[in-house]
Amino acid sequence: MPIELATEVPLVIETLERLFQPSTIARIIVEGLGKAAVYFVLAVGLTLVFGLMGVLNFTHGAMAMLGAYIGGLVMVLSVSDGTDALVRIALFMVVLAVVFALLTGFGSAFEYSLIRPIYDRTPMYQILLTFGVALILEEVTRIVVLSQGIQPEPPWSGAMGTAPAVFTERYDILGAPIRGLYAFEIVLGIVAVVGVWLFLNRTLYGLYIRAGSEDPEMVEALGIDVRQAFTIVFGLGTGLAGIGGVLLMWDPLWGPSALLAIDVLLYAFVVVIIGGLGSFKGTVVAAILVGIADSFTTWLFATGIVTFTGLPELTIFGLLVIMLIIRPQGLYGVEEVGGH
User: Fold this and answer.
1) How many Cβ atoms sit within 10 Å of the Cβ of residue 109?
2) How far apart are CA 245 and CA 73, in angstroms?
3) Which of 72, 78, 103, 279 lies 20 to 30 angstroms, CA to CA, from 165?
4) Alpha carbon of 259 to those of 95, 153, 213: distances in Å?
């Protein structure tokens, strides 16, 4: 047996032994579900807009960045060192509602004024327009935060510091130290999944949206204003991106920064493509898959088993490549999406 192989075998055995310990499994699952909740919130808005409407919205990541900065600003102005943890959580929920309302309105106005006139043109127009607006939003954000003495890179520590101690502390779960923030993210993720599902399947506008994405001409012939329904969908997708940005505000691996615009867009597209364009179920499953993979590879790096710092990103984008090769339409996708 070669010397290199002989030295690697004990390491592999030790890794497997540590992996199947209850504490390790608990850590990977809980942290993975917390990451999955964030990925779902970030991606579901893109699923609605890109999947159901066929609109390539490259401003999605910039909206999440704006949500993180707006949420951070409100929290920094509202929270002091003596603010109780329950008050901070209550303020955070208020911030979620405010950011969602603001960005939903902004997204609806953006769709009505700029996106709607180019529905009948080739997708390249949508790409150029939304990409250009994304660049403008990112640069304006950099100018504004720099004018306030805040560096756009690295993440804004002042906003991240408003998180209550119950979220920054670690708690023992089957012997694994789990950050409290992950449990909070899981709860919010479940609420988001249920809320979006109810909207799509139990509301009149949800019916209009699903029908309009399949056959807009027939829906319009029935007297339904499909364009208005799509304006609402675009606004909701933008608002959900903002909520995702607010969630990242307290996450130690993210935080408010100008880099969120591109990072969020990449991860959102990965989840949407793996799950299948326009598939709500696919987005949920893909977010869990990506979250668990991220958690597992992060554990490999944190324990020193693997020293390559880019392993989580490499694994996530590797999943995307494998999916595109094996099943290009995604886990639950169809061959064509969008009604335009």
Assistant:
1) 14
2) 13
3) 103
4) 21, 7, 32
Residue 283 Cα to chain centre, angstroms: 11
User: Which residues are paired to 179 by β-bridges?
Assistant: 170
Residue 224, domain member (yes or no): yes
pTM: 0.89
The total of structural domains in the chain comes to 1
On whether residue 35 sits in a domain, the answer given is yes
Q: Crossing angle of helices 180-202/226-249, nearest 10°? A: 170
176 φ, ψ (degrees, to nearest 5): -105, 130
Helix segments in 111-122, DSSP class H: none
Rounded distance, CA 322 to CA 196, Å? 28
What is the residue type of 211? A
**pLDDT at position 240, please?**
94
Q: Can you list the positions of beta strands (E) in the chain? A: 170-173, 176-179
**17 belongs to a structural domain:** no
Q: What is the pLDDT of residue 338?
A: 46
CA gap 224, 218 in Å, rounded: 9
Domain enclosing residue 233, as ranges: 29-261
Spatial separation of the C-alpha atoms in residues 59 and 340, rounded to whole Å? 19
The DSSP call for residue 154 is S
Q: What are the b/e assignments for 72-97, b being 16+ CB within 10 Å?
A: bbbbeeebeeeeeeeebeebbeebbe
Task: Please name the residues in contact with 200: beta carbons below 8 A apart, sequence gap of 6 or more.
Answer: 206, 209, 210, 280
Give per-10-residue mean pLDDT for the chain (340 aa).
53 68 85 93 88 82 94 91 89 95 96 90 89 94 90 85 88 81 92 92 80 72 79 92 93 87 91 88 94 90 75 89 91 61
Q: Is residue 96 part of a domain?
A: yes
